[in-house]
Amino acid sequence: MFNFPNTRLRRRRSNAWIRNLISESILSVNDLIFPLFVHDREETTEPIPGLPDIKCHSIDGLVPIVKEAEGLGINAVAIFPVVDGKLKSENAEEAYNLDNLICKAIRIVKSKVPGVGIIADIALDPYTTHGHDGILKSNQIDVKNDETVSVLCKQALALAKAGCDIVAPSDMMDGRIGKIRKALDDNDFQNVSILSYAVKYCSSFYVPFRQIVGSCEPSNSIDKSGYQMDCRNAREAICEIEMDINEGADFIMIKPGTPYLDVIKTASDKFNFPVFAYQVSGEYAMIKAATNNGWLDYDKAIYESLICFKRAGASAIFTYAALDVAKNLG
Ligand code: PBG
């Protein structure tokens, strides 16, 4: 079909303006979601291991950074609580305390920066002493599914009452989307959306995140393979997505991003549904570490690492580099 010399693909690469005209993917500030960490201490500039240039904010400190994000055109932030160890327990009761850290943070950010969408995780790991996303059976290994889902519903209601726009179950329990949807609807929260982490792999790339939220003591060795997906599987991802769409998810998420681009591509080809992707802490850490060693150009590497999500078909992207990228795109 395409024969040299009649076809010379390099002709179409010879100038920036031609390349721009035929580019197949666009990364826009509209696509970016900025994850933020909040703690109940003073604002600090303490570095976070594995997440250089990312800070943990006080509740008040969140407001200026969300305003900055809004000023750059970022549409939504995802807020993660770093919970004081004294408030953690076996059964994560703090997760549905209406006045807990994340609820307070959501209320303040929503009142001060109402134009930015707020996303919050549903999962028990910030609140459990053992760091698992759910409640453990007496063997202290397996996570109980249905009992955990009941607690997740209470957590979802607490977040919705605080003003959260999108709840994002990241726990990988079976059947939680349907139950959370029902709990929200029964309590007049029909307009609170669900972003299901439908395809969350059991990944080694979450370590910096777990170090911040303190869910992996003592040795980063927590094993979530009893609920998070096996990295060898892709067809199973389709099943997860189908179930979550049927149960009432509004958006689905694939996580991590770069190591699972094949799954992002398949999901976005197969379902007429918005697919989000999460460039997780370990992915960001790799690029930052190489940059800080002088081995990569940060701006170029981050852009390339995000445009590939768009090429694969993702709608929106969680990235710790959202502010940097937004500045460069602007
Ligand atoms: C909690 C949760 C995790 C991440 C987001 N929500 C960690 C985990 O499942 O252990 C990871 C995000 C990142 O690494 O940036 N369920």
Can you characterise this structure?
- The chain is of the alpha/beta class and about 325 residues long.
- The protein has a single domain, classed as Alpha-Beta Barrel (TIM Barrel), CATH 3.20.20.70.
- The protein contains eleven helices and eleven strands.
- It has helices at about 15-20, 60-70, 100-110, 145-160, 175-185, 205-215, 235-245, 260-270, 280-290, 300-310, 320-330; strands at about 30-40, 55, 75-80, 115-120, 135, 145, 165-170, 195-200, 250-255, 275-280, 315-320.
- It has an eight-stranded parallel β-barrel with strand order 1-3-4-7-8-9-10-11, surrounded by nine helices.
- Helix 2 crosses helix 3 and helix 3 packs parallel to helix 4 (about 145-160).
- The longest helix is centred in the middle third of the chain and has 18 residues, at about 145-160.
- The model has no long low-confidence stretch (mean pLDDT about 95).
- The protein binds ligand PBG.
- Ligand PBG binds near residues 125, 133, 170, 224 and 281.
